[in-house]
Amino acid sequence: MAAIVKDTVGRFSNVVSDYVKYRPSYPPEVFELLRSEGVTTDHLVADIGAGTGIFTRMLVDQGFRVVAVEPNDEMRKAAEASLAAELSSGRLTSLGGKSEATGLADHAVDVIIAAQAFHWFSHDAAKVEFKRILKKKEDSGVKSQVFLIWNNFSSDAESGTELMRGYEDALIEYCIDYLKVAHGWVSKKGSPVLPKFFAEGELKKAAYVAQNNQRFDLEGLKGRCLSSSYAPKPDHPNYEPLMRRLEALFAQYNENGLVEFRYTTEVFYGTI
Predict the structure, then answer these.
(1) How confident is the model at residue 159, as a pLDDT?
(2) Which Pfam families does the protein's record reference (predicted)?
(3) Which of 183 and 5 is assigned the larger pLDDT?
């Protein structure tokens, strides 16, 4: 990931509007998993890399007390604007920290969640910080203290569709950083990141297929693409070819003016 981490904070500043409009939510099964691991509304949850607050809102709506940590000013302001009532209620606190410097006190939180964010972290430094801000496991009373969540495109042969495979092919061809970003959480310099991040033997995984799909018109399909930091900007030579490819995919696969975006939500969890 060394080639893409040089501006992990600022690279979303120009896509906030599309991010708010077009990014998916998360399936309710994620919250069933949290509860099965002993996480209750009595626990304080840190949402690290909270972005525009998509998962933050779901946490608060489920009754959790949350500290949202987001370093990008534009994304954090968007979250704070949409969650103003929750901030006023005291159920939510918003901080401008980073994964490796959250601004939280020692042993301040029971649980850490990173939704669609861990691949941007400096993993070794984040692990040190997570250990610092987490309560001792015996004090928190939960089975698992760290949950890393991704909504991934369902483009494989088993769960994907022709649209999703064509969409990913377009990203690979026209979005220079796509493979680095999309797969950066799996491996870094050839060695698996996640097993090393969690304590030995503690990493667990859950997956939920097609529980939070989205349906888009052509504008939405383009907006979903442009909400990604790796998407080329209008002045980039790949921008127009990518838009034409999306138009062709939409023309081929839309039904009654809509295409379905399919996701597989993966959760990696355990203790560190």
Answers:
(1) 67
(2) Methyltransf_11
(3) 183
Residue with tokens 């626990």: 43
CA–CA separation, 11 and 60 (whole Å): 27
Is the per-residue pLDDT at 221 higher than 60?
yes
Average pLDDT over residues 185-196: 71
CA proximity to 110, closest of 138, 144, 143, 134 = 134
Minimum mean pLDDT range among 125-129, 156-160, 176-180, 226-230: 156-160
DSSP secondary structure string, the chain? Answer: -TTTGGGTTGGGGGGHHHHHHH-----THHHHHHHHTT--TTSEEEEET-TTSHHHHHHHHTT-EEEEE---HHHHHHHHHHTHHHHHHTSEEEE--BTTB--PPTT-BSEEEEES-GGGS-HHHHHHHHHHHBPPHHHHT-S--EEEEEEEE--STTT--HHHHHHHHHHHHH-TTHHHHHHTTTEETTEESHHHHSPTT--EEEEEESSS-EEE-HHHHHHHHHTSTTSPPTTSTTHHHHHHHHHHHHHHH-BTTBEEE-EEEEEEEE--
For the chain, domains (ranges, CATH) are 15-153+183-214+263-271 (3.40.50.150)
